[in-house]
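step=encode ok
step=design start
structure_in=
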């Protein structure tokens, strides 16, 4: 029987920290915990204030430990997505025995040589985040497109070309400071484009050419695959948060209210909303008894204008990559900001590419009903788990074993407890998937629920998981946005979903 081990992964986003915990048994991955928490001290996916960033991460880890009855000792984290440049590095090695076949270990050694020999102008300011092989040649005659092709070939010498991704050193050192203040160690620091692609892309898409667009709160990143190889990466320093900022300033709301309105009622392309665009949102001010009205069509116009700018910037990056005419599988859209209603339609109209949503592929893992793990905002943490799982020695937790007297003691880290209290499929308290005005579960880029107290938990146990009537659904919506948003709808409100295109 194979021993159990656990991997904890944290996606450090500009507006949220997504924490996942997975149980690994052999090749099987079961995600047993996933939850999102508002972040702090992080900008453009870079940790700028380690002390502030450690506070919500520590709270998220403690909540997971209490729910799963484990002790998390280390966590897998991602490197910054923005301010990363790509360079070309080459390496060559003479083989001691040319009559033997090239092995994977030799390819890895060649990659290490390329990374170690790449000249960094100032190592105090920059470091290499990762490297991806582009092509190989054996004896300068046989050219192989990938690592798979060159392994098994005989040659006197092996040469390879690699794409090296260089980023700033300070945000990486800030991650160490943040984790140290949190009380956990860094299990691995991963270059996220490869990890996210592993979670959402198929082998066919990577082979035929695809652009993976991840829309976060502070950064929108572009990763292009062709021939199953990462060919291009770039990022722009804005995402879903600029949409929130536009709503905030245009309507005179505070940022929290603007974010909640975007998550609950946000959509692109007002002309596609049909009669729904004629509805009006009423925002009540409980302090002075006044209220404001916001037409859904006007809200959609604000969102569409800023979203078009994001899409135009991404399309410029695709054109600049040189692969614009080689993307046979078009664009895959993922990340928390990918769930604005009609955003896929907007991108398709502007680019002409086919567009699909990039959810974590269920073929790679099981979740036993773990809420939120199948949404686009979970792609990064699931990808990190898939990448880290390849290191069979990695175990991020220390089991907590109940004693006979009711106390708890930590089991030795070197032993695997066969009766660990983490049950298969346990995901803690399940919350009803959040909905929005336009349909089912809105994958939220930013989750800002207040922490449940004892009374809330008792109340939630009495309420049905699935509301059977529209009025119940609407009460959940107004409760989620802090009773700040109430819809002023006419008698046709029951036909909203039928009118949605």
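sequence_out=
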């Amino acid at each position: 029987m194979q021993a159990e081990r656990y991997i904890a992964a944290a996606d450090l986003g500009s507006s949220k920290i997504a924490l996942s915990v997975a149980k690994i048994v052999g090749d099987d991955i079961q995600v047993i915990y996933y939850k999102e928490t508002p972040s702090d001290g992080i900008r453009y996916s870079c940790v700028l204030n380690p002390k502030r960033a450690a506070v919500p991460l520590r709270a998220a880890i403690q909540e997971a430990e209490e729910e799963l009855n484990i002790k998390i000792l280390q966590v897998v984290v991602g490197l910054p997505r923005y301010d990363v440049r790509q360079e070309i590095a080459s390496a060559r090695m003479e083989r001691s025995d040319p009559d033997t076949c090239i092995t994977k270990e030799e390819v890895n050694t060649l990659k290490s040589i390329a990374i170690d020999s790449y000249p960094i102008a100032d190592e105090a300011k920059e470091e290499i985040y990762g490297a991806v092989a582009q092509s190989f040649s054996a004896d300068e005659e046989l050219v192989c497109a990938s690592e798979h092709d060159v392994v098994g070939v005989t040659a006197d010498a092996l040469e390879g070309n690699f794409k090296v991704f260089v980023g700033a050193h300070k945000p990486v050192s800030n991650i160490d400071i943040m984790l140290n203040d949190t009380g956990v160690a860094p299990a691995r620091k991963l270059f996220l484009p490869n990890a996210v692609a592993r979670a959402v892309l198929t082998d066919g898409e990577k082979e035929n050419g695809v652009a993976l667009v991840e829309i976060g709160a502070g950064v929108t990143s572009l990763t292009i695959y062709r021939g199953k190889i990462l060919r291009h990466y770039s990022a722009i320093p804005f995402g879903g948060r600029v949409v929130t900022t536009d709503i905030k300033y245009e309507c005179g709301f505070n940022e929290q209210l603007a974010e909640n309105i975007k998550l609950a009622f946000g959509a692109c392309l007002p002309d596609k909303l049909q009669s729904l665009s004629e509805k009006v949102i009423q925002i009540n001010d409980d302090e002075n008894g006044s209220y404001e009205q916001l037409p859904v069509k006007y809200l959609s116009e604000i969102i569409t204008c800023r979203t078009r700018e994001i899409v135009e910037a991404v399309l410029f990056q695709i054109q600049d990559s040189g692969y614009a005419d080689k993307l046979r599988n078009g664009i895959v859209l993922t990340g928390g900001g990918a769930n604005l209603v009609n955003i896929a339609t907007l991108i398709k109209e502007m680019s002409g590419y086919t567009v699909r949503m990039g959810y974590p592929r269920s073929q790679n893992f099981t979740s036993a009903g773990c809420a939120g793990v199948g949404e686009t905002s979970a792609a990064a943490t699931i990808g990190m788990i898939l990448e880290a799982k390849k290191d069979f020695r990695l175990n991020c937790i220390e089991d907590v074993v109940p004693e006979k007297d009711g106390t708890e003691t930590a089991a030795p880290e070197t032993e695997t407890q066969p009766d660990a209290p983490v049950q298969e499929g346990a995901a803690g308290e399940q919350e009803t998937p959040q909905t929005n005005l336009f349909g089912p579960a809105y994958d939220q880029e930013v989750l800002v629920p207040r922490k449940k107290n004892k009374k809330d938990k008792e109340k939630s146990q009495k309420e049905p998981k699935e509301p059977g009537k529209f009025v119940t659904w609407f009460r959940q919506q107004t409760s989620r946005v802090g009773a700040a948003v109430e819809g002023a709808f006419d008698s046709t409100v029951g036909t909203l979903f039928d009118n949605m295109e």
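step=design ok
step=annotate ok -> Residues 243 and 303 are 6 Å apart (CA to CA).
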